[in-house]
Amino acid sequence: MPAKDTYYLTTPIYYPNDIPHIGHGYTTVAADVLARWRRLRGDRVHFLTGTDEHGENIARAAAKRGMTPQEHVDEINPRWHDMLSLLDISNDDFIRTTETRHTARVQDFMQVLYDRGDIYLDTYRGAYCVFCEAYYVADELVDGQLCPVHRRPVEQREQENYFFRLSHYADQLLRLYDAEPSFVQPAVRRNEVRSFVESGLQDVSVSRVSFDWGVPVPWDDKHVFYVWFDALLNYVTAIGYGNDPGAFARRWPADVQFIGKDLIRFHCVYWPAMLLAAGLALPEQVYAHGFLLVGGEKMSKSNATGIRPAELVDHFGVDCYRYYFLREISFGQDGSFSWESMEARYTTDLANDLGNLANRVLHMVGTYCGGTVPEPAAAAGDAEAALAADLRSAIDGMAAFDRLDFKKGLEDLWIGIGAVNRYVEARAPWRLHKQGDTGELGRCLYTSVDALRIIAVLISPVMPDAAARLWDKLGLHEALSAQRYPASVQPGLLPVAAEVERGKLLFPKLEG
Ligand code: MSP
Asked: Is the pTM of this model over 0.85?
């Protein structure tokens, strides 16, 4: 069997009932930035996302529209693909849980658990939220009757269900959280999960008989699997579980599984227990980010605050969209979106700090050097040494992306961009040009364009489109996609005589 050789990361699979909003975009962009970052670091990457298409909620929505559930999900599916292309998402696969490559393997996996005695039949009574597709115990309800997530009345249900012996795994899970603190991140979520498990785990229902829009239980076709068990398995079915052992071995276990903090119980308790039961390795890390809030509330379709990514991309462009959320909000914490703060980021960070820098420098190479990168004839002096040190900190700082601290990585990078701006200001190439000091002018412009080259590579995971446009202006022969961190972001690798082009502004003034 081949060894694992692929960095494997996942997003949750989304309910296609919802029109994609910026909350969904948030997880997806963060995962994409990490996927691109890992590729830049030289890893082979497999990045999975998809849609969660079974369950009562979907069946109800379809019935309301007078459609079969399959017609309903087929019709909505392209909107999710539209979101991915709108946001420049470089996923390697997209799984739909209605695909046979998934459903057949869900049956295989659950059969293994059944055969091992980890699944049994019993009757379940409890409060159920159809929107979460989950049962809640009484003390989790708001005002004794509302779902804690949706604030809608729960239903009392009694059903004959198959149960998974989750309670058997409590001790192993507690040992896991303690022995592998990186398994659930950030730490606040690990503590939350740990106290949930410590307070006592009940066995959990894994099947439903009240509707049939799901994967049939292979040993009892009156039942379909509960949508969460079906859904969680996408992470293994999509990469060859039970179907392509070689491909599976190269990817599993996942390196990072991204989720919103609403999903920790499923991903940090049920999911590892299922894997333990099946004898599979556990993911290295489940990372739960915070919520995007609008007006202080979790943004969602049901509270009418859902903002579509296209509304922002149309105005700010995809690069600003991708940059803004990661720069503005500490990954892992909740954060508020506002139009004004996004506008400020666009104008200050992107148009002024980065866009103007590129524009000025390339304009000067155009007018003073006929558009070709000059020889750095004069020796590097104090100004260059200081800039090199500042760039070194920015380059090293980007390694914060390894820890998923995107905000810190970007802050450090922008400190570096600020240093390049100050360098240009201080060296005043327009003065060197006037004085006819071609040696110093060459040194200064070479150093500045070389810094732009480094910046283009460093911004590429976050702003692939702007990075490509900047790269094109630099007239380099090597492809941007062939650049690696840290080898390609060392100073001085810019070839002399590269033909640069000022071209259009990287971040034009916002309209309206
Ligand atoms: N289908 C399940 C997940 C199954 S994974 C095996 C589901 N889907 S969902 O579409 O409702 O939400 C999925 C994810 O979208 C959340 O975990 C979170 O990552 C993201 N978000 C949805 N609303 C969000 C915000 N307001 N803010 C940030 N992320 C949010 O749950």
From this structure: yes
